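Hi V.,

Quick status before I head out on leave. The structure for the redesign project is tokenized and pasted below; the design run finished overnight.
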């Protein structure tokens, strides 16, 4: 064990109540060390035996050459990874919110579509009942009864009925044409049209919700990658060997680069909210 007494330290550099040791190089166990103006209290400059005139060099926290550079790189990676993790979590939360809103809209549109379909079915039943009564009156040659029923046709049924009955004028011997007005393209009940539109809106909202869920999952995947980077940034200092630290730095840089590439491609592909 290499020891220096107080007088040698004072000769190397001024040591008072708070002293400084000038830059020196020492060798211990084959490793090169550098002391860079560390401050020490004079009262603590004692050897393990309690001799105040002897100083144990192992008391000084001396870093290996190359460690400061690794520390700086890890610090920069830690900063960027922390900010990127927070951003990914924020975006995932926002996309999950959009997903919930879109799925809620989809359910609302689908419920309204079912309601309008029910209304449309009711109106079609009225049209069918009136048309059946009209056919029965015409077949019995009850003209007044047929006209009475015809006056009560709904406005949405009237265009299809007029287009259908116009075919009977071509053949007066057949007052009732073949088929029914319900097969005509003019027959378009309002609530059926509204129901189809609402169903399309429901499908579109559901697809948007699925897309938002996919985007949120992608941001969560990036968060996992950045979490691995943060783990390496937190444990690398447990090893004193520079070689081990550089190996951890290499692995960290690989994962960090892939995470940043994934985040950049995700932003270009889906953007942010």
């Amino acid at each position: 064990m290499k020891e220096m007494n107080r007088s040698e330290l004072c000769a190397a550099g001024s040591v008072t109540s708070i002293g400084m040791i000038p830059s020196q190089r020492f060798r211990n166990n084959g490793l090169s060390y550098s002391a860079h103006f560390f401050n020490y209290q004079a009262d603590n400059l004692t050897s393990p035996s309690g001799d105040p005139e002897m100083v144990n060099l192992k008391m000084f926290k001396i870093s290996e050459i190359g460690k400061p550079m690794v520390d700086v790189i890890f610090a920069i990676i830690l900063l960027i990874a922390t900010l990127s993790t927070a951003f990914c979590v924020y975006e995932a939360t926002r996309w999950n919110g959009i997903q919930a809103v879109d799925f809620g809209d989809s359910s609302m549109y689908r419920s309204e579509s079912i309601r309008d379909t029910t209304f449309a079915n009711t109106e079609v039943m009225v049209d069918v009942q009136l048309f059946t009564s009209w056919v029965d009156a015409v077949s019995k040659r009850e003209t007044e009864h047929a006209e009475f029923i015809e006056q009560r046709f709904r406005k949405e049924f009237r265009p299809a009925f007029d287009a259908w009955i116009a075919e009977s004028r071509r053949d007066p011997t057949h007052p009732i044409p073949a088929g029914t007005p319900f097969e005509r393209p003019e027959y378009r009940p309002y609530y059926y049209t509204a129901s189809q539109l609402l169903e399309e809106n429901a499908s579109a909202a559901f697809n948007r919700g699925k897309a938002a869920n996919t985007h949120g999952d992608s941001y969560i995947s990036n968060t996992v990658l950045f979490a691995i980077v943060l783990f390496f940034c937190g444990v690398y200092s447990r090893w004193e060997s520079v070689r081990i630290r550089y190996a951890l730095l290499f692995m960290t840089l690989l994962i960090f680069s892939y995470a940043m590439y994934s985040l950049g491609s995700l932003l270009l592909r889906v953007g942010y909210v």
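Above is the designed sequence. DSSP finds six helices and six strands in the chain.

G. will cover questions while I'm gone.

Best,
W.
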